[in-house]
Amino acid sequence: MNTRGKRIEASTRKPEWRCVASKTVGDGKKARNGKMLQYSRFVLFPLLRGQGETIGFALRRALLGEVEGTYITRARFVNVNPENSRPHEFSMLFGMQEPMQEILHNLQEICLRGNLHGTHDAFILVRGPKLVTAKDIILPPFVEVIDAEHFIATVVKPIDLHIELKIERCRGGYRDREADSAYYEDGGFDIYGFFSPVQGMNHGVYSFQGENKEILFLEIWTDGSLTPREVFREASRKLIDFFSLALNEEGTKQKKDTEDPKEEETEESEEKEGLGFDRLKDAQNPSHPCQHLAPLISLLRELGGREGALKCVTLDQFPFTRGTYLCLQRYEILTLWDFLKLTDKDFARIRIPLSVREYALVWEFLEMYSLFVDEPSGWS
User: Fold this and answer.
1) Domain 68-194, CATH 3.20.20.70 — does that match?
2) CB distance 17 to 49 below 8 Å
3) Does 2-67+198-244 carry CATH code 3.30.70.100?
4) How many other CB atoms are found less than 10 A from the CB of residue 36?
5) Is the pTM of this model over 0.85?
6) Residue 21 forms beta bridges with which residues?
7) From the centroid of its chain, how far is CA 186?
8) How buried is 298 (Cβ within 10 angstroms: 0-12 exposed, 13-18 middle, 19+ buried)?
9) Sequence ranges of the chain with CATH classification 3.30.1360.10
10) Which region ranges are annotated with the description Disordered (predicted)?
11) Nearest by Cα to 56 from 190, 166, 206
């Protein structure tokens, strides 16, 4: 009797999260390349079979890709060379022991904590000889350095080191380097790399109270700018926000089903007028195969005009033959904008196998949504 009661209690028990371990891991003494990490271990139990992997993978993506942190994203060195030559990423600065690349890497690894919006300025103003660390950074009042002894550079000569920094919040992931010719013109360098408070994450699923129950173990390592508890709550909130969009949409749909049909028609007409449906000539050819693009075309025209809509509508939306698709892709003609830029010489050179019906479909589509910017050259 008592055993049966315990089984019923275990089967109806609601899942709960618990933090079973928290500690700081590292080499004990912060060296130049050393890192002190905060570690926590969480468990979720009991779960039905298969639920552990579902929750674990979802939290993994949210932890590594959605949590924001505060980091240095740009550095500009002022008066670094007496010859006024423009420095590059691999150059040696006058009076400095470390090369530019190593200094930028040390700046990228600095852990900051602060709740800020947008981009903010920070500075380093020191007089050598001096060992420059993170405590020498002049930060905004709402930003603080986690490790003030973090090494940045060594000034070996009696010079003034002036570095202008940009600080902003970055979402987890790699920040790509900008491929721009003006990248070095002002003496500044964008700092690119992996910007995330979460330095590591691991999860495991094990059997719990029999074959039909599971327990999920979740391990999180952070750089100290946020604690594992904070990033765990932030990742969970991100997932809830994503799925709440679908729930809100379903609730709105159920609310519309209970409303008066006449009121619904009035709201739909007002919504279409707001999106620009009054400018669309859908009634001309309601059986056009690209009729489903009407809402998208209207929105694109609102945001980027005719040219923006033409650049976003791809030719794979049209029922062309396979030979036509392959020919267009071979010459990188992928959008309506690319297609309308073709001249008569281009049509003769490329020899696109477009039939009369396929020409007519493109023409009707452009005329239906008034997307002609200029007179198309290929329709003579």
Assistant:
1) no
2) no
3) no
4) 16
5) no
6) 41
7) 27
8) buried
9) 2-67+198-244
10) 252-276
11) 206
